[in-house]
Amino acid sequence: MLAGIFLLYWPYIWCRVRKESIDEYGLRWVYDKDSILQTLLVSAGVLSILTPVALYWPWDTLPHSRTPGMVMSMLASGLAAAIIEETFFRGWVQPILRRKLSAFAAIVITNLIFAPIHLIAAPSVISLATFFPGLIMGTLRERYGNIFPSILFHFLGNVWAIWFFPSPF
User: What are residue 157's phi and psi, to 5 degrees?
Assistant: First the structure.
């Protein structure tokens, strides 16, 4: 809980203390029709590719069956995780790296930090696969200049994961 609070609020505190605009970091959510539509299309494309892969995953029966209460709990935590993680990684880490590096390098390095963090919640090597959707989230952040598209993509991925994420446990 404390880690989540830190990850969510630190980028805003950083900007305030340094007297920098949150817009420089893309921390102000911008609801742009084109960015939303394009993010939905990218999400649909990625998830339509991942679904058959997940359905034929060797050690898990997918899709998972979930109770309504479990689904609601997972949706809430999936939304919270998307907001918290995107605020910190795409709204703070990536822009700081971007000041010194190319967009590509900043996105890759951010995800080299982002992916291993998932081992805390799900200690399995498959958790490191979050590196790849992280590349898309970083690209969305870079393309649109704010974190809303990456949050939307992340949340939709989390919704998909409720039913289709292969789990070795």
Answer: -65, -40
